[in-house]
């Protein structure tokens, strides 16, 4: 057979295959990717993505930043977990950021990232993210891409329905998933119904600095508060918290917390409560929780313990709390862009209930109640329901919205995204995803003005989507085009940790504010130096402080003597560069700590305690210049009783 | 917006000037014309402070360090060239003949140290002081 006929045969075979595939094509089978998919996700080398996506790291404790539509990983921002790559949680400056009332905690489980908003639309200033295990909320500054605040939530456990914000970022909330005794104490577990409570915390956000302060905590029945979202537009002033385990069981919850047909969405009139608090309602309760703040002029974090918190019980805030019955074990509580509809995602429900805010206020005014729970009125289901999405699929979890009146719900059990019309509750499209989707995102998809171009499905199970990497696989995300009537799968990409909620925002709202350097003139670090001439070594008892400078391509000083075994040596390294993307690193042989990675104009400190006499080389760990390999130094460590005096220099013995 | 429009205009002007070969000695950058008046002591003091903070890591006057020794630089180069080298080192080491040669010799990219044109002018005044001694 000559080359031509082989080619001909190949074409024929291909044609047959295409025809055959066409015949076998059933309506809901994927993954058929449209032929224009590559051009839709291809971002030319050197060109920028259209959106930033901020994806929670789940059990990595961090925040991952991706570009959309390319799916390129741009950055991992350390938040709740130590990160030896840049010293987060290891340096003297950042250790206070991971302090808690339990002491230093090196890890957490970060679940939901939420952008700050202005007038109900993401504004690109800050990003809030929750620590689920040791209840905390962190705030990331989106000009530096650094965590600059972490506040602990007392009287809470499993800080899951968090950290969602009100439309003007007046408040960020933290609802407890695991009810516990308030105040936490030693009680029999079987006293659950009597002693265990669910707290919903409202943290006031300072409009200029972003700093958080717990304004009040609502002490509510001991259910599992799962997710939440603020009202907006007509429903601005309200917050909606889904809760399951209204059975109040405390063992084998998968069975015992799934007994009732309906659990609840708790509607909270926070504006009314705010007014009551201003009038002095509520009482201060003793508590112990930390507030950690990072100052990017001092390049240092501080941790302060707070001793009390304002608490309110349902009978303090009469007329501000209502339970809406919601089928069944609800997860997501999502509010559409108009603010009229509240969507409950019932994990075990066969429908998606859509509540109407106007019907809810009417039912409240007309007292259409079905009893109460511990003094909180329960509204009648039919009186607050706009309608149900029938046969949406199995295991509805979360809903995001586009700007054309459609909602998109993730179906965990049936592994699909279901698109439905918000006002008619009619399913218009469905797309299989691979596999078992948890959260999903649309840029601005929980705001007043979604940018309805893309949807990202964050899937829990990866299986065969990527080259195998042993038993442990990266999680899989999928980018979907939602600009047309039909959803179109565009791209798979792996993610860091286990993403839960994520948010995306047009790139120019972030990129224009991105900081390039820290100005050396503004460096207010107590051990910082502003000139190489100030580089020095000082002994204070058994502490040795090295004031070190780094600039391409040398560390000053680079010869240090007089350090003794057992000394606590603090390397305070200042990067004197003032040019974008010129970090310098630092480490020393035998360092039982992380490296330093110091940005231009910044000072960072690592502590090192030498254990044996000898010569210890140190060097810059970030390939910074042609002479990076020359960027090194020697420290001489002498015996404990040695008489060698502190001596340091550079440019010696040439 | 204004700067965006200015950039191509400036670039063109630079290319044009470079093409003519008339103004090579002033280097490439924002500084087109410096008129040196009488020595200004307080300006040179400001320059010394900035130099000690941002430049000493790489430059000495009498001997080479990371970069070339700076003694006599005001006699070797035009004031505009010196300021452009401080303000625009990356482009200078790529496109200016003298700066390219120095880069080839020292092999370390001189870095922009976030100084203003006024700062650069004060550093130049400090160099004048050093060169007068």
Task: List the keywords.
heterodimer; A: 654 residues; mainly beta; Methylamine Dehydrogenase, Chain H; Immunoglobulin-like; 2 domains; 11-stranded mixed beta sheet; 8 helices; 46 strands; B: 133 residues; mainly alpha; Cytochrome Bc1 Complex, Chain D, domain 2; 59% helix; 0% strand
Structural overview:
- The complex is a heterodimer of chains A (654) and B (133).
- Chain A has 654 residues and is mostly beta strands.
- Chain A folds into two domains: 51-511, Methylamine Dehydrogenase, Chain H (7 Propeller), CATH 2.130.10.10; 529-649, Cupredoxins -  blue copper proteins (Immunoglobulin-like, Sandwich), CATH 2.60.40.420.
- Chain A is built from eight helices and 46 strands.
- In chain A, the strands form ten sheets. In chain A, strands 6, 7, 8, 9, 10, 11, 12, 13, 14, 18 and 19 form an eleven-stranded mixed beta sheet that branches. Chain A has a six-stranded mixed beta sheet with strand order 42-41-44-45-39-46, with no helix packed on it. In chain A, strands 36, 37, 38, 40 and 43 form a five-stranded mixed beta sheet that branches.
- Chain A is globular.
- The termini of chain A are far apart.
- The relative contact order of chain A is 0.10.
- Residues 11-29 of chain A have low confidence and may be disordered.
- With 133 residues, chain B is mainly α.
- Chain B has one domain: Cytochrome c-like domain (Cytochrome Bc1 Complex, Chain D, domain 2), CATH 1.10.760.10.
- In chain B, 59% of the residues lie in helices and 0% in strands.
- Chain B is built from seven helices and no strands.
- Chain B is globular.
- The interface between A and B is medium-sized, with 23 and 16 residues.
């Amino acid at each position: 057979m000559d080359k031509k006929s082989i080619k001909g045969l190949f074409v024929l075979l291909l044609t047959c295959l295409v025809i055959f595939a066409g015949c076998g094509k059933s309506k809901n089978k994927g993954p058929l990717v449209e032929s224009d998919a590559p051009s839709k996700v291809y971002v030319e080398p050197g060109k920028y993505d259209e959106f930033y996506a901020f994806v929670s790291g789940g059990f990595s404790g961090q925040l991952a930043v991706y570009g959309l539509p390319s799916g390129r990983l741009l950055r991992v921002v350390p938040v709740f977990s130590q990160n030896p790559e840049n010293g987060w949680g290891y340096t003297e400056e950042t250790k206070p950021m991971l302090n808690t009332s339990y002491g230093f905690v090196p890890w957490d489980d970060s679940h939901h990232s939420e952008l700050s908003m202005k007038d109900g639309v993401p504004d690109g200033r800050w990003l809030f993210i929750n620590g689920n295990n040791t209840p905390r909320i962190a705030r990331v500054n989106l000009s530096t891409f650094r965590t600059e605040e972490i506040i602990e939530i007392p009287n809470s456990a499993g800080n899951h329905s968090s950290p969602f914000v009100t439309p003007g970022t007046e408040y960020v909330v933290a609802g407890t998933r695991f009810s516990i005794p308030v105040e936490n104490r030693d009680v029999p577990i079987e006293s659950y119904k009597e002693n265990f409570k669910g707290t919903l915390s409202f943290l006031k956000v300072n409009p200029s600095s972003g700093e958080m302060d717990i304004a009040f905590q609502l002490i509510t029945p001991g259910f599992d508060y799962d997710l939440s979202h603020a009202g907006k537009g007509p429903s601005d002033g309200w917050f909606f918290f889904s809760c399951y385990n209204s059975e109040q069981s405390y063992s084998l919850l998968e069975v015992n917390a799934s007994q009732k047909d309906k659990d609840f969405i708790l509607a909270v009139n926070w504006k009314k409560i705010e007014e009551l608090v201003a009038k002095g309602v509520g009482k201060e309760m003793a508590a112990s929780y930390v507030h950690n703040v990072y100052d990017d002029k001092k390049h240092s974090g501080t941790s302060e313990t707070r001793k009390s918190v304002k608490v309110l019980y349902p009978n303090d805030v009469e007329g501000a709390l209502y339970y809406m019955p919601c089928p069944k074990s609800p997860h997501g509580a999502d509010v559409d862009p108009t603010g009229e509809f509240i969507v409950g995602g019932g994990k075990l429900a066969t429908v998606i209930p859509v509540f109407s805010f106007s019907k809810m206020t009417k039912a409240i005014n007309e007292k259409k109640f079905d009893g109460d729970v511990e003094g909180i009125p329960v509204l009648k289901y039919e009186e607050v329901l706009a309608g149900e999405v029938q046969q949406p699929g199995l295991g509805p979890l979360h809903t995001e919205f586009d700007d054309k009146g459609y909602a998109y719900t993730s179906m965990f059990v049936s592994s699909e995204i279901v698109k439905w019309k918000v006002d008619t509750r009619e399913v218009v499209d469905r797309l299989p995803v691979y596999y078992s989707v948890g959260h999903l995102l649309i840029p601005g998809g929980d705001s007043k003005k979604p940018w309805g171009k893309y949807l990202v499905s964050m899937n829990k199970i990866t299986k065969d989507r990527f080259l195998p990497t042993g038993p442990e696989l990266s999680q899989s995300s999928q980018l979907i085009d939602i600009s047309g009537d039909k959803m179109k799968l565009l791209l798979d990409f792996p993610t860091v940790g286990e993403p839960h909620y994520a948010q995306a925002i047009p790139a120019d709202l972030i990129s224009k504010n991105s900081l390039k350097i820290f100005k050396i003139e503004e460096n207010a670090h107590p051990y910082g130096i502003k000139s190489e001439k100030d580089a020095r070594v000082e002994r204070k008892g058994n502490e040795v402080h090295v004031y070190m400078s780094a600039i391409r391509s040398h560390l000053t000083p680079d010869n240090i003597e007089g350090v003794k075994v057992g000394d606590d040596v603090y390397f305070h390294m200042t990067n004197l560069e003032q040019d974008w993307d010129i970090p310098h690193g630092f480490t020393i042989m035998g360092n039982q700590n992380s490296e330093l990675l110091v940005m231009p104009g910044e000072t960072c400190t690592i502590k090192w305690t030498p254990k044996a006499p000898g010569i210890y080389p140190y060097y810059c760990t970030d390939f910074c210049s042609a002479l990076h390999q020359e960027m090194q130094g020697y420290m001489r460590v002498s015996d404990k009783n040695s008489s060698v005096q502190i001596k340091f220099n550079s440019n010696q013995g040439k | 917006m204004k700067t965006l429009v200015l950039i191509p205009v400036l670039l063109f002007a630079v290319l044009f000037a470079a093409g003519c070969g008339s103004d090579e000695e002033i280097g490439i950058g924002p500084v087109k014309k410096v008129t040196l008046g009488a020595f200004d002591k307080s300006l040179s003091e400001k320059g010394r402070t900035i130099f000690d903070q941002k430049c000493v890591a790489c430059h000495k006057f009498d001997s080479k360090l990371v970069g070339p020794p700076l003694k006599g630089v005001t006699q070797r180069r035009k004031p505009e060239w010196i300021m452009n080298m401080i303000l625009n080192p990356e482009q200078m080491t790529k496109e200016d003949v003298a700066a390219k040669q120095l880069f080839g010799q020292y092999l370390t990219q001189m870095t922009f140290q976030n100084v203003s044109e006024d700062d650069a002018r004060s550093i130049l005044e400090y160099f004048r002081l050093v060169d007068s001694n």
